[in-house]
Amino acid sequence: MTQRMSNILIVEDDYDLVETYTDLLEADGYRVTCAMTVVEAFDMILQEGPDLVILDLNLPDAHGYNVIDSMRKANQMPNAIIIVVTGHPEMTSVTDQADLVLTKPVSNQQLLTIIKRYLVQKSRMLSIRSQTGPLTLYGTSE
Fold it and tell me: What CATH number has the domain bearing residue 32?
């Protein structure tokens, strides 16, 4: 059985880091799209439907938290994993809706390991959900 290739969106304004992440992830078999601004990120989210988003918070046009807020509150891509990677540890307090927050620098191997783990967990969760259907509670009185 072949597994669908995971789609990862990188939202980062540092071109060298985008290139590094892209090369790393594509070499490991992931489909990668990139955005360097919040506006581009919104377009990519709607077009690509990423499985996982690597998100910088300090972007040129707006705060990266706008991406998280929009995805979670508007229920866009509710199953997408959001990993914040920021060089500003003081900003991490506003990321309560992210799945994980990492402080730069992050080693390539560490990032790849984390991404693999989160995508495996997501795949298992979605598989269980598809096999069991919606949760039904028995023995409750209304």
Answer: 3.40.50.2300
